[in-house]
Amino acid sequence: MKKIIFLTILVFSLVLSGCILENIEVNEDKGQPVAGDEQEDEMVDTEEPQDEEDDMTTEIKVYFIDKQVAVERDCATVVEFAREIPSTEAIGAAAVNEMIKGPSMKEEGVASNAVPTGTKLLSLEIRDGAAYAHFSKELQNYGGGSCAVSAIRAQIESTLKQFPTVDSVVISVEGVLQEEVLQP
Fold first, then answer.
1. What is the rounded distance in angstroms from the CA atom of residue 7 to the CA atom of residue 135?
2. Residues 155-180 pLDDT 10s
3. Residue 167: which residues within 8 A CB-CB, separation 6 or more?
4. What b/e sequence results for 105-140 when a residue is b if at least 16 CB atoms lie within 10 Å of its CB, and e otherwise?
5. Which among 153, 74, 172 has a CA at the least distance from the CA of 114?
6. pLDDT tens readout for residues 18-51
7. What is the C-alpha to C-alpha distance for residues 60 and 32, in angstroms, rounded to an integer?
8. Half-sphere exposure at residue 19, Cβ-oriented, CA atoms within 13 angstroms
9. I want to staple 76 with a disulfide (CB 3.0 to 4.6 A). Which of 101, 130, 131, 154 is the partner?
């Protein structure tokens, strides 16, 4: 009978200790136990980003109109800015979309965006060294003038020609080629 009571107490003790240990985490840095429930709300991730995360972004260049030079009537002079974007296989489209967003507040001091507000890149295809960029109708809302046309073309072409697979750029709006839609 003593054996049965002893075994019952032993089993009961092991079950209880297993329940208590279930709520204890081990601090990997120091190898010390920490209470899971007590520390959970206070845990903050303070670790620096790892190399893995660095591989998840790509630096691209976007081009905007140089404000100073534009004042001197050279409308097609662009200035380059680096942007960090999420890595993607569609890097050309991502670069154009960044350019469409326009200069950051910091960049606005020296650059402006000739691409009209609301413009969207509908598709981008790179074939035989040519980038075929198809835009929404808002690209035509530039107000006219050869200076505006030159500025829009310069921004789009410079942004796409940064890539080694692009030698030339063909711009279209709603299926109509640039020669017909981007007129002064």
1. 79
2. 999 999 999 999 999 999 998 887 77
3. 129, 130, 161
4. eebeeebbbbbbeebebbebebeeeebbbbbbebbb
5. 153
6. 443 344 343 444 444 444 443 333 333 334 344 4
7. 45
8. 6
9. 154
